[in-house]
Amino acid sequence: MLINSYKFQRVMRSYYVLAVLVFSGGLLSTIAWAGCGQMTAQCLIVVDEQQRTESCEITVCANVNEYSADWQLENGGTVSERIDKDSKVIKLDGQGGISLPYTILKDNLTCYAIHDASRVYCAKDLSL
């Protein structure tokens, strides 16, 4: 009976080690699927139907669970977008905002607006 108990303990220990390795590998692969990109672009700003362009820094970060984008415009304007499995929050200059649907925009254009669309920020070719 002692030999069977010893073999059982070794088998269980092997399964435990295997489970720890599989679980750790899952965590490591989740961490590996993350990254950030940054670019300088010319952003189109539309305020009360007046258009202008200015330089902007755009940073996009993502992993398997969440996405974030931050725009810093030359004049001090900002855009932030946060998406996770439970929510999506967009802000322009600290105010609630929306992303404009790609179907109504020109090719390769990404645009955000405040809810009344009196202020719109756009950037082209955001392939980070």
Report on this model:
With 128 residues, the protein is an alpha+beta fold. Helices cover 24% and strands 49% of the residues. It has 1 helix and 8 strands; from the N terminus they run H-E-E-E-E-E-E-E-E. It has one helix spanning 2-32; strands at 35-47, 50-62, 66-73, 78-84, 88-92, 95-99, 109-114, 119-124. Strands 1-2-3-4-5-6-7-8 form an 8-stranded antiparallel barrel. A hairpin with a 3-residue loop joins strand 2 (50-62) and strand 3. The longest helix has 31 residues, at 2-32. The model is unreliable at 1-30 (pLDDT under 50).
Task: Sum this structure up briefly.
The protein is of the alpha+beta class. It contains 1 helix and 8 strands.
SSE blueprint and pairings:
Blueprint: H1 2-32, E1 35-47, E2 50-62, E3 66-73, E4 78-84, E5 88-92, E6 95-99, E7 109-114, E8 119-124
Antiparallel strand pairs: 1-2, 1-8, 2-3, 3-4, 4-5, 5-6, 6-7, 7-8
Number of helices: 1
Low-confidence parts = 1-30
What share of residues is helical? 10-25%
Structural class: alpha+beta
User: What is the global morphology?
Assistant: globular
The separation of the N and C termini measures 63 Å
What integer value in Å does the Rg equal? Answer: 24 Å
What letter string, H or E per element, gives the SSE order? HEEEEEEEE
**Strand order of the main beta sheet, please?**
1-2-3-4-5-6-7-8
Strand content: over 45%
Number of strands: 8
The major beta sheet can be summarized as: 8 strands, antiparallel, barrel
Mean pLDDT: 78
